[in-house]
Amino acid sequence: MSKAELYQNVMSRIDAVKAQGNRPVVVFDLDATLFDVGPRFWRILHEYAVQHGETELDEKLKAFRRTNLPYLMTDILKQLGVADDTLTERLGSYWFDRFFSDHYQYYDQPVAGASDFVQHLFQRDVFIVYLTGRDAPGMLVGCAESLRRNGFPVGVVNTQMLLKPNFEMPDPDFKEAATNFIDGLGEVIATFDNEPGNCEIFRKKWPQAVNVFLDTQRASMAELPPEGMPSLKDFDFSEYVSKG
Length: 244
What we know:
Layout: H1 3-19, E1 24-28, E2 35-36, H2 38-51, H3 55-62, H4 73-80, H5 85-99, E3 109-110, H6 114-123, E4 127-135, H7 136-149, E5 159-164, H8 171-183, E6 187-193, H9 196-205, E7 210-214, E8 231-232, H10 238-241
Helix pairs in contact: 2-3, 2-5, 8-9
């Protein structure tokens, strides 16, 4: 399915559901779907390097990209050319305490076209669900601030943020459980997620929807994309929105 066909398919589903008197719902993941969290990762590594006198790490970071970073720290350090078990171990707790926090979500950057596309759907009376593996106790405030600051509709009628009740709950378990709640919001016409396992959960639950795999970063790059599922690398539908 081409990008143009995918866009038109979603728009057609919206019109069809509204014509039946129902409310269309679109479900979005956040990390590596609507947001590139690479800048958050980069910022934490940079702060560590400065605070701990890791000059080589800092110099290599400054010459390195800040977006579309690998999912795992070990892979980032390998690409930087500073892979070292001792450094990785020291970085571990420092990174963990900051990455899964309110404050550092400030550095996330929207994937190209993401906020415009979500706003476009919202203006067409689509109910927007942000279904994320971020946890409410540690990340709710920063999550809402990040969405608002980057131009996404949030905290208003026809929007819903759904975060995990605790950090320890596995993301797939949370998302599968949340699908029953989402069913009560209207008719799901599209879903977007970067993890193949989550995409399969959505396809099984909502086979009639346009379920889309975001081919960005994922927990295991060795895990194959969902077979036969349309994929995107970004949400830049600008040339199609202007026509529709």
